[in-house]
């Protein structure tokens, strides 16, 4: 009898088999680097700021004179000039002198604090300061924010708006990132047709090519479609070989029926250096999943049912991507929600229940039910909840983690 | 004295002023529709499935004969044929007859259930069924999943993998979506330079153009850069007018110092049909934010500090996008986390504290501190937590909602 792997065994296999995968890199303009993954540690070539910088509008002074200042007894300074924003002032501040300065301006030599405009009055060449100022108050010292030589972005870090901002701040115009994962998509099944073919007999339109293509775009991969292959071993072998040679990962969907499944398994086995890593997973849905390695390429045989297919993509294929790209599993696509109603789980396998999120005072998750392969279930599901094989269900009011689809 | 608006007043103003905005539409291939917003209700032109469909591998039968079947006393059927997947069978099932059928196959006329392969034995032209089957068991009836004429995707619905799958299932090859929002980006300030200029004097590299460009990409908008404008009223008016004429929304960053701020405000006021809706918001950070309407275009004056600038984008500009695109504020970018340490809030304004998320057994949020304008703070922040003006802080262990940056 076939031995099914558990979901955590499958994760271990993916880690073991694909952790040493080496991705290519490319250099892209910083503007276009959003959501790409940094290919090396990047050090700051400059101090940020590279001068002592005022963080407010006000007056640069030596602060000691302000220590006893209050509303009745202001400290008085002679106004000797104004700092032109963007330039290093060509004057020095002496005891008892003040210079007007704006946010971002360079603090003149000799000054050790900037007093905020709100706490001053300027009159006839003199500045009255009504509050004490501490040394370095409202000054960002040279290199205080980012020191020259510090690592600002790490290898494998995903570049989002904040990281791109930091790279801009240290003067980077471009950045070396890992190449996007190339992923081939093949749909199989005698009954599957393209949307431009007539809907005859018991044919159905291809759904998985579309959902996988879209889901791959969301994961920043580069999807490539190889069309629909009938239940024909030779045809599948031909297209699969080409797809494997042209991509990092190949996804074959279909194969819920015994014949298509057998074809898919045999075609994968025929690939050069093919090793079948997983043939069946003890989960619901998605039991008939196949995972293989062909050389340094990964091949997935995904269930034909659209909901199961997308779910296996989100749960296992995305896991592989995280391993290949050295990404931590982050909470970006997860939401904590309270179950609106309970449900029973009795399969003895790890079960995944699709839920619809309802945004009220708190976020509610409503379990969805649908016959196997329901398209409508797919449309209504916001995400899924995992129930360990050892549990018999979940109760209304339980707090659950919903992984968004 | 200037009256600052609260954050909820600003939301109300945005709703009132921009709810009747009309977006253009365009028709795109379904493959390319990921993350676009559907421009009209889409009805199914076909039933899904458009035939009675088997959801398992097994045998199609009339089920009444199975009602008393068990391991000792199987119901026995004559095998009369096999359903070819993708075709409507040309035979009928009579009482006592069975036809082999695979997942996705069309249930033959006369049959009212499909018994699973696992519960049968086939021998010498006969099928032994060892378990009772209910009427319609393992059959998805014609139109049961999606009925012809049903709305499958609604106007304003964001098209993600599941929705694209549903549209594929009903045979759509393309879909009408709303045009992406066009957004112009202008950076201002005498001290701001591009990354290809030498870092002289007290100049600093432009950060906000990069962070806004990247954040706009993440929001599926079409960003356009208008470069850096010095503190020169005429120059700003010229570029601003052009940006407003070419975009739906214009973001001007800079203006933390009084002079730049005044310039920005005057330049916005000079636009045709300009109305200043908001001039200062009672929040921390981001107080000096300007929001205006010029005809049917929106113009934002954002703070110059990179962290404040990105925060105001996420909090108010994204809110405007949600209004323009009729999107509900969803939890896609939010995470519930437990505070690692507490912090005090004392400004009397609504405060936003940047936090770093730490993924351990549960998700922890560690408050970050940094001087105003810190780039490093930007880099370390996973998101922010809102503290109402009426609160004086949050305690360690408090459960907080973190909005991801």
TrEMBL record, chains A, B:
Residues 184-323 form the MoaB/Mog domain. It comes from the Bacteria. It is an enzyme of class 2 (transferase). Keywords: Magnesium, Metal-binding, Molybdenum, Molybdenum cofactor biosynthesis, Transferase. It holds the Pfam family MoeA_N. Its EC number is 2.10.1.1. SUPFAM superfamilies: MoeA C-terminal domain-like, MoeA N-terminal region -like, Molybdenum cofactor biosynthesis proteins. It catalyses: adenylyl-molybdopterin + molybdate = Mo-molybdopterin + AMP + H(+). InterPro entries: MoaB/Mog-like_dom_sf, MoaB/Mog_dom, MoCF_biosynth_CS, MoeA-like, MoeA_C_domain_IV, MoeA_C_domain_IV_sf, MoeA_linker/N, MoeA_linker/N_sf. Pathway: Cofactor biosynthesis; molybdopterin biosynthesis. Its cofactor is Mg(2+). One of its GO terms (biological process) is Mo-molybdopterin cofactor biosynthetic process. May be involved in the biosynthesis of molybdopterin. Catalyzes the insertion of molybdate into adenylated molybdopterin with the concomitant release of AMP. Belongs to the MoeA family. This is Molybdopterin molybdenumtransferase. It comes from Caldicoprobacter faecalis.
């Amino acid at each position: 009898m076939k031995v099914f792997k558990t979901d955590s065994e499958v994760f271990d296999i993916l880690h073991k088999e694909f952790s040493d995968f080496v991705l290519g890199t490319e250099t892209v303009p910083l503007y276009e680097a959003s959501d790409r993954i940094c290919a090396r540690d990047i050090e700051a070539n400059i101090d940020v700021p590279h001068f002592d910088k005022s963080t407010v509008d006000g007056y640069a002074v030596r602060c000691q004179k302000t220590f006893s200042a209050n509303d009745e007894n202001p400290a008085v300074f002679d106004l000797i000039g104004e700092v032109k924003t963007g330039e290093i002032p060509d004057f020095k501040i002496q005891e008892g002198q003040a210079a007007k300065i704006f946010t971002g301006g360079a603090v003149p030599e000799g000054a050790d604090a900037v007093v905020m405009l709100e706490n001053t009055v300027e009159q006839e060449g003199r500045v009255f300061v009504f509050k004490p100022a501490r040394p370095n108050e409202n000054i960002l010292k040279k290199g205080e924010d980012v020191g020259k030589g510090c690592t600002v972005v790490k290898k494998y870090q995903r570049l989002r708006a904040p990281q791109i901002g930091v790279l801009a701040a240290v003067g980077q115009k471009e950045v070396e990132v890992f190449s996007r994962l190339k992923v081939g998509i093949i749909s199989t099944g005698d009954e599957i047709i393209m949307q431009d073919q007539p809907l005859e007999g018991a044919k159905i339109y291809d759904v998985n090519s579309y959902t996988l293509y879209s889901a791959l775009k969301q994961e920043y991969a580069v999807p490539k479609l190889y069309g629909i292959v009938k239940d024909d071993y030779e045809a599948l072998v031909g297209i699969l070989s080409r797809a494997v040679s042209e991509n990092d990962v190949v996804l074959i969907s279909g194969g819920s029926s015994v014949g298509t499944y057998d074809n898919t398994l045999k075609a994968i086995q025929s690939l050069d250096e093919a090793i079948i890593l997983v043939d069946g997973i003890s989960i619901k849905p998605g039991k008939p999943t196949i995972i293989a390695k062909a050389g340094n390429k990964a091949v997935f045989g995904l269930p034909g049912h659209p909901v199961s297919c997308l779910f296996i993509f989100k749960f296992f294929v995305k896991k592989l991507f995280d391993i290949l790209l050295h990404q931590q599993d982050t909470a970006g696509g997860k939401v904590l929600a309270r179950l609106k109603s309970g449900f029973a789980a009795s399969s003895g396998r790890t079960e995944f229940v699709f839920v619809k999120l309802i945004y009220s005072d708190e976020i509610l998750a409503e379990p969805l039910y649908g016959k196997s392969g329901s398209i409508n279930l797919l449309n209504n599901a916001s995400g899924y909840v995992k129930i360990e094989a050892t549990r018999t269900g979940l109760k209304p009011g339980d707090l659950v983690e919903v992984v968004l689809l």
